[in-house]
Design brief:
By secondary structure, this protein is an alpha/beta fold. The chain is built from 4 helices and 10 strands; from the N terminus they run E-E-E-E-H-E-H-E-H-E-E-H-E-E. It has a single domain, classed as 3-Layer(aba) Sandwich (Rossmann fold), CATH 3.40.50.150. The radius of gyration is 15 Å and the shape is globular.
Length: 176
Amino acid sequence: MGILDHSKIWRVVTDEFTVGTVGTDVYMDFGNGKIITDDTFTYIDNFCTRLLNIDFNSVLIAGLGLGMFAQYIADNSLCETIDVVEINPTLIYTMSNYGIYDSRVVTIQSDIFTYTPVQQYDVILFDLWWAAYLPETFTNDINTLKNRYNTYLTDTGYTYFPVLGAIGQQDTFFKV
């Protein structure tokens, strides 16, 4: 069983994606060969657990996906503020209707490249890519987001970019 409560997941099919369960896995299939699952060992072991090695009370997460990071933080830390920015209203509606997220998880419908936070965070986590695309474009996106969100980090804050993909594993914390 993965991070999410499988008993609350049912099959949902939209024009953009399908969410459902197969055995003990919750999955999101985008229909183009790209599938996210909540039991991906590397994702959970390498990325989610890294968050427990730092102290934080507030986190801004860019990208909802299946909500694994948000729920993992809610289940494994005392973090008080868990804000998630997601551009796709269909995804927000679908995942919020499952009722699987802790009450601390707040979803904000916006584009992370233009969103303006209303507070500072201890961690800003950019979970936008499940596979890094062209290295140059990816690096440009990271630099753009780091520069845009640096002022929204607390004095001891971090930005975090967890990515697996064509350019290799990226698991990078950037300290203020």
